[in-house]
Write a structure and sequence with these properties.
By secondary structure, this protein is α+β, with helices and mostly antiparallel strands. It is built from 1 helix and 8 strands; from the N terminus they run αββββββββ. It has one helix at residues 2-22; strands at residues 66-72, 77-82, 86-90, 96-101, 109-111, 117-121, 124-128, 135-138.
């Protein structure tokens, strides 16, 4: 009987000593490891070049100005100068007419004070003059 008790106590005492070693005197738990891990500095990465943005929104006003000559179906030619938020049309006779974007926040439809209008679609321009049939002109 005495032998059984000695065996049980001999197992319990080392366990209690091990548990007591893990708890500091102030009652706070110990950290698992006090060694600070060494983290290598991050490799110097080259910043990625900015993605090219392709704008296909016809409602965004064009910021560039330019000039293009169009051949019309009636054998005539017109020159359209893009001024950003407006166009200047130079007819075959040399007469000029100003067209403002209509509505103002887009870059494909333009209207003049005379109610003439131009619709730009890629390489084509639909020219609508008051009192005549609309003409399709191509660059």
């Amino acid at each position: 009987m005495m032998f059984g008790r000695t065996v049980r106590v001999s197992f319990i005492i080392p366990l209690l000593l091990a548990a007591g070693a893990c708890v500091p005197e102030d009652g706070a738990p110990k950290a698992a490891s006090t060694v600070t891990p060494v983290v290598p500095p991050a490799a110097q990465q080259q910043p990625a070049p900015p993605a090219t943005k392709i704008t296909t929104d016809l409602t965004a006003p064009r910021l560039t100005t330019g000039m293009a000559t169009y051949r019309c179906g009636n054998g005539g030619m017109i020159t359209i100068q893009n001024l950003g938020t407006s166009l200047r049309l130079v007819g075959q006779e040399g007469a000029t007419e100003e067209f403002a974007a209509s509505p103002a926040n887009q870059s494909s439809r333009y209207q003049a004070v005379t109610h003439d209008a131009i619709v730009i679609d890629g390489r084509e321009a639909l020219v609508m003059k008051r009192g005549s049939t609309p003409q399709t002109c191509t660059r």
